[in-house]
């Protein structure tokens, strides 16, 4: 018998630590003092799913960090949460309390990409191919691992000039060339020749992506599983959630003992281990990579580089400091302390970095054209109003009277919203 369905607001009433968001599902964050503390909670989640009252709930997606654990209970294909999902959330919260972990329901958020187009039928296969995403019955593309942003397409009249937003995408070198070849029939343009430093591709309407093939760590002994996609990354398929939890505990121990923070993301297909952008340059990475690979071998795991992907949003701006500050506030990020970069990043390393590049102030026509690409930010329902006010205080302005889309000081747009229906009056 199918589990009884419930609405989002009913779920939040029954599980106060949790918030309904967009395609990620229902999310919660529990702060920890170490990777191992988070791994202990993951083990308790495995036990909770074995209970009768959580039977039928979907396997959560877990993002394990040194400072906490983010847990997403996916929304079933029916589009409705169930009492089994609620029971699992309640069990997880109870386990977190027993472990003295602190919830913070303001943390979960989703950033998504929207592309305005007059020809979705052409653009969608281009982006699906390069990103390795899944097509859906709706107007969007989804990362099979649900780590990277959803891509939406909106009908719109053509805008011929270069956009001020583009994407950097890195994938394993083993698959990059074939993906580019597969994207050619779908309008991919550009003299893509990575060996000569040319990595720019555009879709049929001129939206740009720097598509970067990522190699390994050379011939270093004991690190052949790893690839350098702006950060050190490796993905290991696992047979089930229990094996993932066991391996995550081993990786957490390595991270704590070596002292290098890691992003340990558990999915139904396996486990992704990621240093985060540029963190592989830390002198502790070599030992970390070797010990993680050794632990994987002992568990009988084999790396799959085809699952690896790095993404970041890049915004061209004339006044980089003001535009950067706007997006830092909107996303709840921090400035990268390095003076030679313009990055902003999520301090918990849960969401993707963003960079800013200098634009020619005399390119007036391009500056005045509305972007084809814009961003959608989904927040917990009780965080939306405050974040909008913060965006306006950081130089943003509403582009319409309905209080929806907000533009930064140079016109780059974001929609800040929620994904939960209002409760009945």
From TrEMBL:
Record InterPro entries: Glyas_Bleomycin-R_OHBP_Dase, Glyoxalase_6
Domain Glyoxalase-like span(s) in chain numbering: 115-209, 312-416
Pfam families: Glyoxalase_6
PANTHER family given in the database record: CONSERVED PROTEIN, HYPOTHETICAL FUSION PROTEIN
Name this protein carries in UniProt: Glyoxalase-like domain-containing protein
Highest classification ranks of the organism: Bacteria, Bacillati, Actinomycetota, Actinomycetes, Propionibacteriales
């Amino acid at each position: 018998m199918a589990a009884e369905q419930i609405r989002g607001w009913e779920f939040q009433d029954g599980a106060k630590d949790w918030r309904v968001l967009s395609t990620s599902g229902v999310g919660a964050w529990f702060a920890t003092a170490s990777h191992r503390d988070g791994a202990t909670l993951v083990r308790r989640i495995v036990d909770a799913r074995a209970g009768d009252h959580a039977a039928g709930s979907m396997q959560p997606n877990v993002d394990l960090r040194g400072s906490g654990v983010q847990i997403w209970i996916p929304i079933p294909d029916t589009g409705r949460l169930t009492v089994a999902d609620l029971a699992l959330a309640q069990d997880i919260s109870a386990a977190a309390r027993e472990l003295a972990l602190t919830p913070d329901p303001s943390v979960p958020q989703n950033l998504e990409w929207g592309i305005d187009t007059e020809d979705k039928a052409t653009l969608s296969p281009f982006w699906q191919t390069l990103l390795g995403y899944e097509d859906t019955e709706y107007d969007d593309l989804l990362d099979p691992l649900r780590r990277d942003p959803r891509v939406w397409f909106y009908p719109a009249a053509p805008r011929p000039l270069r956009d001020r937003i583009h994407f950097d995408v890195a994938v394993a070198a083993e698959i990059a060339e074939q993906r580019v070849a597969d994207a050619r029939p779908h309008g991919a343009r550009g003299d893509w020749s990575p060996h000569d430093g040319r990595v720019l591709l555009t879709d049929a309407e001129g939206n740009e992506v720097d598509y970067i093939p990522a190699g390994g760590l050379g011939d270093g002994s004991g690190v052949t599983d790893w690839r350098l996609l702006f950060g050190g990354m490796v993905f290991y398929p696992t047979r089930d959630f229990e094996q993932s939890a066991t391996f995550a505990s081993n990786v957490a121990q390595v991270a704590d003992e070596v002292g290098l923070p890691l992003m340990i993301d558990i999915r139904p297909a396996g486990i992704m281990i990621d240093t985060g952008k540029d963190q592989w340059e830390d002198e502790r990475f070599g030992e970390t990579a070797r010990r993680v690979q050794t632990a994987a071998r002992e568990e009988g795991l084999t790396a799959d580089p085809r699952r690896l992907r790095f993404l970041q949003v890049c915004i061209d701006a004339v006044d980089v400091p003001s535009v950067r500050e706007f997006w830092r506030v909107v996303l709840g990020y921090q400035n990268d302390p390095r003076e030679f970069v313009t990055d902003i990043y999520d301090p918990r390393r849960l969401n993707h970095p963003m960079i800013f590049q200098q634009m020619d102030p005399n390119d007036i026509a391009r500056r005045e054209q509305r972007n084809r690409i814009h961003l959608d930010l989904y927040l917990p329902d009780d965080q939306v109003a405050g974040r909008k006010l913060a965006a306006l205080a950081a130089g943003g302005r509403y582009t319409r009277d309905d209080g929806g889309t907000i533009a930064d000081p140079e016109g780059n747009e974001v929609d800040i919203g929620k994904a939960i229906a209002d409760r009945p009056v």
